[in-house]
Specification:
The strands form 2 sheets. The chain has a two-stranded antiparallel sheet. The chain has a two-stranded antiparallel sheet with strand order 3-4. Helix 4 packs antiparallel against helix 13. The radius of gyration is 24 Å and the shape is globular. With 329 residues, the chain is mainly alpha-helical. A hairpin with a 5-residue loop joins strand 3 and strand 4. Helices cover 49% and strands 6% of the residues. The N and C termini lie far apart (62 Å).
Length: 329
């Protein structure tokens, strides 16, 4: 299908939003906001305020059709407030991920380093599926996951302008021990290496963060990388349904997160699930829970309206009174 919609000036965009039922307020201020954030970003934050209607699909199942018009009493300031809230949320997420990521690198260097300075290059620390050669669907040989990982790390070394990387490049032909190499790893590279670790080594790492199993920790690291990428690219985060969601601990395995599996817990994995997981991991680094308290304060200040509440983030409001979100005394 050929795209035929015309270019619209800022004033055209303001007029179009008004025709769809949005109270744009002062047209000049509305234009300033559109110039700052853009039409598609703005309407993304306005999406929860659109009218909808029930419809039946081809199989007779009830679905919801979202309409172009906005619900009554929807004001442009509703989107402006959400944009500001989401910006503050992304900054907190980036801060939290940074602290966890650095701690993960440090723990990885410790767990592998005590085996060998170059344990990441050998096979003894890893499961066979990580180190053994593979084949594609036609039986053609493929490099092992470890070889792929090492090649990408070498590329990162080659692109690095860190002084210590240059030192190893000049003096040791680029070969770096794991306790130095971890300093330049991206979180995605940490995640892939962790996935390949033997269960006993991976479990030891997880235990340092109070996580009972490799499977759970692996899931949480993947979610950390996912939300970090969302936040780093300034994408909408507050009401996102997580594509890469953290596994919820079973039973009482992690008491501080037991509320995630209660009967009233939303079935969909919203952003709150990632925030709760991060708060738990950060407790091992910051027992005072300063980050958690700041996140809870922001969530309590969610710009609620008659059409939208903090529950859109995947939580029950009473959860913010749980121990996880309160400072230690």
């Amino acid at each position: 299908m050929e795209y035929v919609k015309p270019w619209l000036s800022i004033q055209d965009q303001v007029d179009g939003l008004a025709r769809r039922g949005l109270d744009v307020g002062d047209a000049g201020a509305a234009g300033v906001l559109l110039r700052e954030v853009g039409y598609y970003r703005l309407t993304g934050y306005l999406y929860p305020f659109r009218e909808s209607e029930p419809v039946l699909d081809d199989r007779g199942r009830e679905r919801v059709r979202v309409l172009d018009s906005y619900k009554s009493r929807t004001h442009l300031d509703d989107a402006r407030d959400l944009i500001d809230f989401d910006r503050d949320l992304r900054l907190l997420v980036l801060e939290g991920v940074e602290r966890i990521e650095v701690a993960l690198r440090t723990q990885l260097a410790s767990s592998l380093g005590k085996l060998s300075a170059f344990a990441h290059e050998g096979s003894s620390a890893f499961v066979p599926t990580f180190t053994q050669p593979r084949t594609d669907g036609d039986g053609k040989p493929l490099p092992s996951r470890q070889e792929v990982w090492l090649e990408r790390v070498r590329e990162r070394q080659a692109d690095s302008d860190e002084a210590f990387v240059t030192h190893f490049r000049v003096k040791y032909d680029g070969r770096m021990p794991i306790w130095a190499l971890t300093e330049i790893l991206e979180l995605g590279q940490v995640a892939r290496l962790y996935m390949g670790l033997r269960n006993d080594i991976a479990t030891e790492m997880a235990a340092a963060f109070g996580v009972p199993t490799k499977q759970l920790m692996q899931s949480w690291i993947a979610t950390l990388n996912y939300v970090r990428n969302i936040a780093a690219h300034h994408a909408r985060l507050f009401n996102r349904k997580l594509v890469i969601a953290p596994k919820r601990p079973k039973g009482g395995a992690v008491p501080l997160l037991a509320h995630l599996t209660r009967q009233e817990a939303p079935k969909q994995f919203g952003t709150y699930n990632a925030l709760a997981m991060m708060a738990y991991l950060l407790e091992t680094l910051d027992p005072s829970r300063q980050w958690s308290v700041r996140v809870a304060a922001l969530l309590r200040a969610f710009p609620s309206t008659e059409h939208l509440s903090v529950e859109s983030m995947g939580l029950v409001p009473d959860w913010l009174e749980l121990d996880l979100w309160n400072a230690r005394t």
